[in-house]
Each structure stands twice: as structure tokens, then as C-alpha cells.
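Fold this: DUF5318 domain-containing protein
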Amino acid sequence: MFEIVRPVSHRVRRARVLAALRDGQLRRQAACDADARLIAAARFHGRVAGRACPVCGSDQLREVRFVYGDGLGERAGTARGRRELEALVAELGEVGVHLVEVCPGCGWNHLLGSGVAVPRS
């Protein structure tokens, strides 16, 4: 088991991007630019977000975690499911995590937050 400490939310930035889309200040192609690798990572390692995509309304919206840290070596920057992240935390003690929402339907993607996964105390 792990918990996320030192969380940093990027939801205000997300709200600004979505407002810019709605107001026509940002083109959809600029915000909905998920590449095939990001979409595949979201489908394989991600979990269903439980809310509709804020751009296209699809129920396919997913949340995926990417791991970072000096001790990860080649594993740094990769998407990981919950069990994999638990194993990394058990091995390393601390793992940086970025949570990204991705819509496979329209390509919307945005960093929701980041933090450090540590063993649950």
C-alpha cells in the first residue's frame, strides 16, 4: 500500500485551458494532442476516470500515472498501474508520480497533479 504525499494540483491550469477552449482562444487541436503512445498507456495502465471527457463528453476518459525518480533508472517516465506502483514503492521507498487524464476518443490530455508515492504509514 502507498499514499501520495506533497501533492501539487494542476486543476486550476486545467480549468483555464478548458475555459480558453470554450471561449475560442485555444484551438481544439492544441489541447487534444495525445499521441498514440499516451493513449495506449492510458488504456493499458490507466483506470476509468468516472466522469465524462470535458471536451467531447465521452465516457472513455481515463487517468494514468507516470513514475519519476532517480532510483527508477530506465523505468522513469513510464506509465504504471496501481500494483506496479505499489511494487516500486516497496522496492524504492519513494517514487514521484504524475497523474494525467487522457481521452482516447478525442485526444484530450492534461496533467491533473503530481506528488510522491510513499509506503502507507
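The chain has four helices and six strands. The first helix runs from residue 11 to 22.
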